Amino acid sequence: MVDRITRRSEQIADHPFSGRKVPEYEADDVRELIETPYRIIYRIKSDQIDVLAVVHGSRLLPDDF
Fold it and tell me: Is the Cβ–Cβ distance between 65 and 30 less than 8 Å?
């Protein structure tokens, strides 16, 4: 599973806007990719991309990051 999540997260470096906006947040720069059953949540900055969390899809997200 770790290898699958790592491979999936490499997509972020090449195509940061390929992930969808996270529905729980109203921020254009916070996005997610799904690697079932996990959500890879990340923030796009001008000079870097920060992975904020890898969360099981059945878990609730915190109110903010």
Answer: yes
Cβ 31 vs Cβ 44: under 8 Å: yes
Q: What is the DSSP letter of 10?
A: H
Phi-psi region at 21: left, alpha or beta (left = phi > 0; alpha = psi -120 to 50): beta
> What's the CA gap between 6 and 14, in Å, rounded?
14
Residues 30-48 have pLDDT tens digits of 999 999 999 999 999 999 9
Q: What pLDDT digit, counting tens, does each position of 3-39 carry? A: 999 999 889 989 999 999 999 998 999 999 999 999 9
CA distance 34 to 51: 13
Whether 22 and 41 have beta carbons less than 8 Å apart is answered as yes
